[in-house]
C-alpha cells in the first residue's frame, strides 16, 4: 500500500495504549493530538472518535463515530505487538457513523487502525480490542454471582473463581456460578498460566467488586489475553514504607525505581515476561494523616514500575483509627483490592495471604490506637487456602506463597554454626500441614528488613526478604550516610525469581549493584567505632551501647564476610597464600549498619529507634588470617553453582561508602 507525502490534521477523541506486561495500561491523549494523512487529504475524513477500548464479537459488526467514510472502504487492524493484521469492510455509513465487520479470525490485542481506499491509507488511531464471548447466560437457582471467563470470544474452562470463601471452576464453556454471602465485596479469578488480564496502571484487574446484596444476582465476566509466560521473572519488593518523610519519595524515584525498571528492561529484552509482587508495608499508617500520604498516594508510585504489580497488605497498610482487623483493612480493599487471592504464571501457582491480624488497642475514629497486631492467618483464609490448593491436582506444581510476616524466626546457631529454627507465624504449623502435599513450596515475606533463608522443612523454603526502603529510608536521608543498607548489613534491595517451567532460581539484588554483588567483607583490625570518627557530636559512651565489641580495637587479624542470602546449600572458601583458611559461621552485628544508622542518629542528637538498630545476623562468617596485611581470596558459591569472588586487599577501611 502506497504512502504519499504527509501533512497533519486533527482528529478528536483519540486514545493511545501502552503495553504493560500483564495486559494494557491506558494513556489518554488530548484532543489536540495530530495524526497524518496524505498531502491532498483525499479521504475527506473528519470527526473520528476512537475509544480507548472496544469489546467486539467475532463475525459481528461494529459502529464508530466518523464522517467521510464510504461503503466498501477497508478498515485495517495492525497489531502493535506482533506482525499480524486483520481487515474488515465498511458495510454502512451515515452522516456521522460508519459500520464495519469484525473478521471471524480476529484476536484480542492492541492495534493501529487504518482506513484503506484505492492506493492510499490513513491512520485513524490506536485501540485495545477485546474479543468477547456470548455472555448471556441463564441464572441458576441459589447462585447469586455468575459470569464467563473468556479469551478471544471463547470461554476458558477450569479457571478457578472465588469470592474469598467459596471456590469453583469454570465449565467447558467458561461459565461459573457462586452461591456467595458477598462478605468480601469481591469476586476474583486465579488467572491461569499463559494468560493475563488487563491492568489499571500497573495493577492487574483479576477481581471485580460486588454489592452486599445476597438477593441480587450479579454477572461478573473476565476477559483474558493469551500469552506465553512459561518462562517469567517475578521481582519480590518488600517494605516500601512510603510516607513522605526522610526524603523517601526522592530516594524511591531517583534510586529504587530506576533500578527496578532497569531489571525489568533487562529481562523483557530477552523475551521474558516480568511481574512484580509486593510483600507488604507499602505505606506507613502512622503518617497517613500527619504527612498526608496514604494508600491513594502509593498508587502513582507503584504505577511507575514498568511491569504488572501484584499487591500484598502489611501491618502498616491497616487503618490506625479502626479497632478490628476487618474494619482496619477496609481502606486497603477500597483502594488496592483483595487481601488474599491466587494467580498462576506459567507452571507456577502463586498465593497471596494476609498474615496480619490487626488489633490496634485503644483506637477511636479521631485517635490512633497502639497499632498492635498478631502475626497469624485468619481461619477464613486457611479454609479458603485449602479450597484453592485443592484445585491444583498436580502436587509437583511449584507453590509460591507470599505474606508480609515470615513463617520462621531469624535462626539462632548451635555450637557447630548450624541453624536452630523456630516457627514465627502463630498458626504456622497449620500452614505447613496444609502445604505438605506439595513437593516444592517457597514462602516469601518481608516485615523484618533483613535477609534470612530457612530450609527446615523438606518441601518448604522460607525466604525472608530485606526491604527496598532498607532502614526505613534513614541511611540515604539527606545529610546521613548516603548509602542504602538494612539492619543486617544487606544492601536495600529485592528478590529476583527466575521461573523456567517448574525450574526455579532466585537471587537477591542490592539496589545500585549488579546481581553478582552477594557479600561484603570486613577487616576487623580496621574496625574501631568511636565517636570521634563516626559521630563527633556524640560520645563514646553512647556509641558503645550500639557498637559493642567494635568499640574496642582488635589486632586478631580476623575477617568477617556478610553473605546476605546464605542458606545451607551455599559454600564460603577463603585462601591466604594459596592455603585454605578455616571458616566459621557466627551471629554478630554488621559494622557498616552501625556507622550508617546509629552513629548518624546519635550525631544528630537523637536516640536510635530500637526496632531500627543493628541486630545480630547469622549470615556472617569469620576467618583468621596469619598477618594484618595479607591478601585474601574470597570465593562464595550459591546453591545454583554461581560463583562470587573478591580479592580482599588488607588493611580494608570501614567507611559508609565501602562496597
From TrEMBL:
The record's section on Pfam families has: Metallophos (PF00149), MetallophosC (PF16370), MetallophosN (PF16371)
Calcineurin-like phosphoesterase N-terminal domain sequence ranges: 147-224
- Where in this chain does the record put each Calcineurin-like phosphoesterase domain? 234-450
Supply the Gene3D superfamilies for this chain: 2.60.40.3920, 3.60.21.10
SUPFAM superfamilies reported in the protein's UniProt record: Carboxypeptidase regulatory domain-like, Metallo-dependent phosphatases
Q: Any idea where the Calcineurin-like phosphoesterase C-terminal domain is?
A: 463-644
InterPro entries given in the database record? Calcineurin-like_PHP, CarboxyPept-like_regulatory, Metallo-depent_PP-like, Metallophos_C, Metallophos_N, STPP_CPPED1
Protein name, UniProt field:
Calcineurin-like phosphoesterase C-terminal domain-containing protein
Amino acid at each position: 500500500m502506497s504512502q504519499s507525502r504527509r501533512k497533519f490534521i486533527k482528529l478528536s477523541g483519540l486514545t493511545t495504549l501502552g503495553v504493560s506486561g500483564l495486559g494494557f495500561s491506558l494513556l489518554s491523549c488530548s484532543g489536540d493530538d495530530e495524526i497524518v494523512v496524505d498531502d491532498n487529504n483525499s479521504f475527506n475524513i473528519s470527526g473520528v472518535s476512537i475509544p480507548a477500548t472496544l469489546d467486539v464479537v467475532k463475525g459481528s459488526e461494529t459502529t464508530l463515530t466518523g464522517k467521510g467514510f464510504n461503503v466498501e472502504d477497508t478498515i485495517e487492524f495492525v497489531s502493535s505487538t506482533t506482525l499480524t493484521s486483520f481487515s474488515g469492510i465498511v458495510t454502512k455509513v451515515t452522516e456521522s457513523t460508519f459500520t464495519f465487520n469484525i473478521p471471524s479470525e480476529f484476536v484480542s490485542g492492541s492495534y493501529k487502525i487504518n482506513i484503506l481506499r484505492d492506493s492510499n491509507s490513513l491512520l485513524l488511531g490506536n485501540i485495545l480490542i477485546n474479543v468477547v464471548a456470548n455472555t448471556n447466560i441463564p441464572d441458576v437457582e441459589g447462585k447469586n454471582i455468575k459470569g464467563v471467563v473468556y479469551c478471544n470470544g471463547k470461554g476458558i474452562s477450569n479457571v478457578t473463581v472465588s469470592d474469598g470463601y467459596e471456590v469453583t471452576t469454570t465449565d467447558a464453556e467458561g461459565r461459573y456460578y457462586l452461591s456467595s454471602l458477598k462478605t468480601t465485596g469481591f469476586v476474583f479469578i486465579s488467572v491461569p498460566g499463559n494468560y493475563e488480564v488487563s491492568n489499571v496502571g500497573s495493577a492487574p484487574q483479576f477481581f471485580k467488586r460486588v454489592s452486599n446484596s445476597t438477593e441480587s444476582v450479579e454477572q461478573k465476566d473476565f476477559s483474558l489475553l493469551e500469552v506465553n509466560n512459561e518462562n517469567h521473572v517475578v521481582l519480590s519488593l518488600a517494605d516500601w514504607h512510603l510516607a513522605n518523610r526522610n526524603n523517601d519519595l526522592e530516594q524511591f524515584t531517583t534510586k529504587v525505581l530506576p533500578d527496578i525498571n532497569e531489571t525489568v528492561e533487562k529481562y523483557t529484552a530477552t523475551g521474558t515476561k516480568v511481574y512484580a509482587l509486593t510483600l507488604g508495608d507499602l505505606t506507613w499508617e502512622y503518617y497517613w494523616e500527619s504527612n498526608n500520604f496514604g494508600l491513594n498516594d502509593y498508587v502513582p508510585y507503584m504505577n511507575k514500575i514498568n511491569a504488572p504489580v501484584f499487591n500484598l497488605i502489611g501491618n502498616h497498610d491497616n487503618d490506625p483509627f479502626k479497632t478490628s482487623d476487618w474494619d482496619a483493612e477496609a481502606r486497603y480493599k477500597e483502594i488496592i483490592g483483595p487481601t488474599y487471592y491466587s494467580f498462576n504464571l506459567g507452571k507456577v501457582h502463586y498465593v497471596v495471604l494476609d498474615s496480619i491480624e490487626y488489633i490496634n488497642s485503644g483506637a477511636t475514629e479521631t485517635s490512633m490506637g497502639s497499632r498492635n497486631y498478631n502475626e497469624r492467618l485468619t481461619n477464613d483464609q486457611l479454609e479458603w487456602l485449602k479450597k484453592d490448593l485443592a484445585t491444583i491436582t498436580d502436587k509437583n506444581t511449584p507453590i509460591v506463597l507470599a505474606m508480609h510476616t515470615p513463617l520462621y524466626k531469624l535462626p539462632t546457631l548451635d555450637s557447630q554454626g548450624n541453624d536452630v529454627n523456630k516457627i514465627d507465624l502463630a498458626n504456622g504449623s497449620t500452614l505447613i500441614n496444609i502445604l505438605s502435599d506439595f513437593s516444592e513450596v517457597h514462602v516469601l515475606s518481608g516485615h523484618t528488613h533483613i535477609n534470612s533463608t530457612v530450609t527446615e522443612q523438606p518441601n518448604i523454603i522460607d525466604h525472608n526478604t530485606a526491604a527496598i526502603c532498607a532502614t526505613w529510608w534513614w541511611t540515604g536521608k539527606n545529610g546521613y550516610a548516603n548509602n542504602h543498607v538494612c539492619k543486617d548489613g544487606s544492601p536495600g534491595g529485592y528478590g529476583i525469581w527466575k521461573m523456567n517451567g517448574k525450574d526455579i532460581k532466585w537471587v537477591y539484588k542490592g539496589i545500585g549493584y549488579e546481581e553478582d554483588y552477594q557479600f561484603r567483607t570486613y577487616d576487623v583490625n580496621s574496625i574501631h567505632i568511636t565517636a570521634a570518627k563516626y559521630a563527633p557530636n556524640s560520645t563514646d559512651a553512647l556509641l558503645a551501647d550500639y557498637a559493642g565489641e567494635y568499640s574496642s580495637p582488635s589486632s586478631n587479624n580476623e575477617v568477617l564476610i556478610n553473605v546476605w542470602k546464605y542458606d545451607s546449600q551455599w559454600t564460603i572458601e577463603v585462601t591466604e597464600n594459596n592455603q585454605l583458611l578455616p571458616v566459621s559461621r557466627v551471629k554478630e552485628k554488621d559494622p557498616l549498619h552501625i556507622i550508617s544508622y546509629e552513629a548518624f542518629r546519635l550525631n544528630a542528637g537523637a536516640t536510635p529507634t530500637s526496632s531500627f538498630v543493628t541486630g545480630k545476623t547469622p549470615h556472617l562468617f569469620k576467618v583468621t588470617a596469619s598477618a594484618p596485611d595479607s591478601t585474601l581470596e574470597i570465593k562464595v558459591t550459591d546453591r545454583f553453582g554461581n560463583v562470587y569472588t573478591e580479592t580482599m586487599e588488607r588493611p580494608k577501611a570501614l567507611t559508609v561508602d565501602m562496597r
